[in-house]
Specification:
about 180 residues; Peptidase_aspartic_dom_sf; 12 strands; nine-stranded mixed beta sheet; 3 helices; single chain; Cathepsin D, subunit A, domain 1
């Protein structure tokens, strides 16, 4: 929705804290970026082939992997095994957790409060989203989009000057007013 900032959190994926992880309840898959996968130091032999997902990549990456994903602290946590598609995608995130993850964790997102609530053995687990990562990610996205936007403006031609504001003929103080009585 417009005006909603992305929910970015820091889950632990395969014993590594992964920053800039997007929580996207509208995505039908979970994506782990190749750079993040390499950071996890998992052998490529463990990857399994999968079908390509259209509209997201060119279809060249067709690999998936199952990783443990943990939210919380040592006192209150929850871990589930999540299947990720590993792909090259030009987005400013390290991973995307979609609807399959939210349903497996039985998580509820609260965009107004920038948090996710997850039931756990020790009660409700509240995952606060990282505002610093959100601002950095949005800045990166805007900078990446700005050359494209400027190129589109050049095609349209030079920008027109703003119209000059006309001076009022009479100011409010000088204007004569008539008194009219209404029945």
């Amino acid at each position: 929705a417009m005006g909603v900032v992305p929910l970015l959190c820091r889950p632990t994926i395969s014993n590594v804290v992964v920053t800039k992880t997007l929580i996207d309840g509208g995505a039908g898959l979970n994506v782990l970026f190749v750079e993040t996968f390499e950071t996890l130091q998992v052998p490529y032999e463990r990857l399994m082939p999968t079908r390509p997902f259209l509209s997201v990549t060119d279809g060249s990456c067709k690999i998936e992997m199952r990783f443990p994903v943990t939210f919380g602290t040592r006192k209150n946590y929850r871990t589930e095994f999540i299947i990720f598609d590993v792909a090259h995608i030009g987005l400013p995130y390290n991973a995307i957790l979609g609807y399959p993850t939210l349903s497996k964790f039985m998580a509820v997102t609260h965009h107004a409060y920038d948090l996710v609530k997850i039931p756990s053995c020790s009660g409700t687990l509240t995952v606060h989203c990282d505002e610093k990562d959100v601002m950095h990610t949005l800045e990166h996205a805007y900078k990446a989009a700005s050359p494209t936007y400027l190129a589109d403006e050049d095609v349209l031609g030079p920008a027109k000057e703003a119209p000059v504001k006309k001076k009022p003929l009479l100011s409010q103080e000088q204007a004569e007013s008539k008194k009219a009585f209404l029945d």
